[in-house]
Structure formats: C-alpha cells, structure tokens
From TrEMBL:
Residues 7-98 form the Core-binding (CB) domain. Gene3D superfamilies: 1.10.150.130, Intergrase catalytic core (1.10.443.10). The keyword DNA-binding applies. This is Integrase. Residues 119-316 form the Tyr recombinase domain. One of its GO terms (biological process) is DNA recombination. GO terms for molecular function: DNA binding. Belongs to the 'phage' integrase family. It comes from Micromonospora sediminimaris.
Length: 332
C-alpha cells in the first residue's frame, strides 16, 4: 500500500493527469479530465463531515457513500452523457490509484452510471452537398482576405474522404503521409491512444500534394519538413482548434450550405458523412470501425442502422410502392 493514504485528492489528480499525458490525449480531452475530476472532488469536499476545502480533501475519505453523494449532486441539471463521461473519468482515476497502491479498491461500481444511448450520426444533409462544398472551397473568391483554396480543400477532403476527427487532423505531421504512389497511407494518432493507418486514394493524395506545393510556394520549401505539422494557418503557424473550426464554418458559409449542417456538428458532420456513405455503399460495421478508429462495433453499427432507416424511407416514398394500396380490397 501507498505510505500516504491521507495524500490530498488534488495532488493525486495531477499525478493521474501526468500519467494520462503519455497517451497523447488532445488538450481538449485533458481539460475535460481535469474538469470532471476537480468538479466532483469539490462536491465531495463540500459533502464530507466536516466540510473541507478541496485542497485538504484526503484520498482515504473517498468512500463509496461520499462518491455516490457527490455524483448525485453532480448529476443534477446535467445531461446523462456528461455524467457518464465523468463516471468514466473517475473510474480511470481510481483504477490508476489501485494500480499505484494508493487505495485498496475502486468504489465506482457502487456509483450508478446512467445509460446513454449512442449518439445519432449527423451527416451533411443533401445528396450532393459534400461535392458542392468541395467545389466551392476550390474557388478562390475575391472577397476572401487571403484565399488559400488548396489548404481549405485539403482540410475538407481529409475529413470527408478519411473521416478524421478534429484532434486527429491537428496531430497530423507531414511525415504522417507515407508509402509509394498508388499505395499511399496516412498514419493517424487516434482517440484514446489507438493509432490507425488509413489507405489514401490517388485523388486525395493529389489534393494533399497540391496543398503542400502551395505551402512551399507561400512559406518556402524548408517550412515543409517531415516533422512539421501538416496543417497550418495563413501565417504558416500550426493550425489550432479554434482556427480549424472557423475554417470549416467559413467554408460552409461560402458554399451557402449552413442550413444543411446538423446543429452542433461542425467539423464532425464531415466525419459522419464519410461514415454514412461507407454504410450506404455496403461497408460492414467492422470495416467502419477500423476506418474511423472506433473503440467498439456498437458505435460503427449506428451508421448502418441509420442508413437502413434512410433506405426504408426512400422505398416508402416510392410512388409505385404507394400505388399498391389502391390494388388491395377494402377491409370488411
């Protein structure tokens, strides 16, 4: 056992986050870990007897009863998905403490975890919307302050044709793209420390090559080193989260398709479009799982189920199918 069972929870949270950092989570994910841990810990400190400041809360006070009470307070007014995410974070935290021999066991199985349905895919609406978006981005419009169509098309194509997440796009380096012509591949640092390798078709390869050529012309060939970030802003600096989101949203506006982007989807709508089209073209859940870097088949299966529903709606709308109703005898 750890020789300091009264060590403060805040100190151990920092140790846990340091250990998690070796998995290379995105800054957004690491911030979410910290927020979930400190918020619930603060509630536990308030509910302890006697109440304590968070900085003075010892880890050995985190009994199943106190953690349950803190999570009950935390769950009030929060969505089930937020509570479930916090539960997972705390479960990982206690698993770390058990492995480090700081605590004898993990109390989280005694804390109720809400059942959260898998999120419904939110692809771009409209059959030709992805193609229209790419065509619009490829045009250098005069009203743009500093148009860079090659870069914009590359970003959209990586999301639409490779299904990359925002954090995965930002983590790409120039040398993430490798392989011989015709056998090109992209090495992706996936979510949860799950790397994957994606095949890159010649058309996407040509788009990326055009972007890198344009970047060399803008900032010099020496700026396109193998270890350099693949995606940069108009000043040649690594593209960041806010800048990437703004880039995609501005592409939506220029293409006039803002009304076809599902609410709250932003860049993720492009990834969902990639997955939905895979399902429409007959890909199985296992293939979708590998290409998108899902942790389980259940997430991938949702795309197939949604596509199946869309197909049924299309059949139901068929005029010939509706005409069958007129051929049936009236019920007695």
């Amino acid at each position: 056992m750890h020789d300091k069972q009264d060590e403060s929870v805040t100190t151990l949270i920092e140790e846990f986050l340091t250990a998690r950092a070796t998995r290379k989570p995105s800054p957004h994910t690491q911030a979410a870990y910290r927020r979930d841990l400190t918020t619930v810990a603060a509630l536990a400190a308030e509910l302890s007897t006697p109440p304590l400041p968070l900085a003075e809360l010892p880890v050995d006070s985190l009994s199943p009863r106190l953690i349950r009470a803190a999570f009950a307070r935390f769950a009030a007014g929060r969505a089930a998905s937020s509570v479930g995410r916090a539960w997972s974070t705390w479960n990982g935290f206690f698993s770390f403490l058990v492995a480090e021999q700081v605590v004898p066991g993990n109390p989280m199985p005694a804390v109720g975890r809400p059942r959260t349905p898998l999120p419904t895919p939110k692809p771009l609406r409209g059959e030709d919307t992805p193609e229209h978006l790419l065509t619009s981005a490829a045009r250098a419009e005069g009203r743009q302050r500093d148009p860079w169509p090659e870069r914009d098309v590359a970003v959209l194509a990586l999301a639409l044709c490779a299904g990359l997440r925002l954090s995965e796009l930002l983590a790409l380096r120039v040398d993430s793209l490798g392989g011989r012509p015709g056998e090109r591949r992209l090495e992706v640092a996936g979510k949860g420390g799950r790397p994957r390798v994606l095949p890159i078709e010649p058309d996407l390869d040509a788009v990326l090559a055009s972007y890198l050529d344009s970047r060399a012309r803008r900032f010099g060939a020496r700026t396109v080193r193998q270890v350099s970030p693949l995606l940069v802003d108009r000043q040649g600096e690594p593209l960041r989260r806010g800048g990437l989101q703004y880039l995609v949203e501005s592409c939506y506006r220029r293409a006039g398709i803002v009304d076809r982007v599902p609410r709250g989807a932003r860049l993720h709508a492009l990834r969902h479009t990639f997955a939905t089209r895979l399902a429409e073209d007959g890909a199985g859940a296992a293939e979708i799982m590998r290409l998108l870097g899902h942790a389980s088949l259940a997430s991938s299966q949702t795309y197939i189920e949604v596509t199946s529903g869309q197909q049924r709606e299309a059949v139901r709308a068929n005029r010939t199918n509706r005409a069958l109703a007129g051929l049936l005898p009236a019920p007695d």
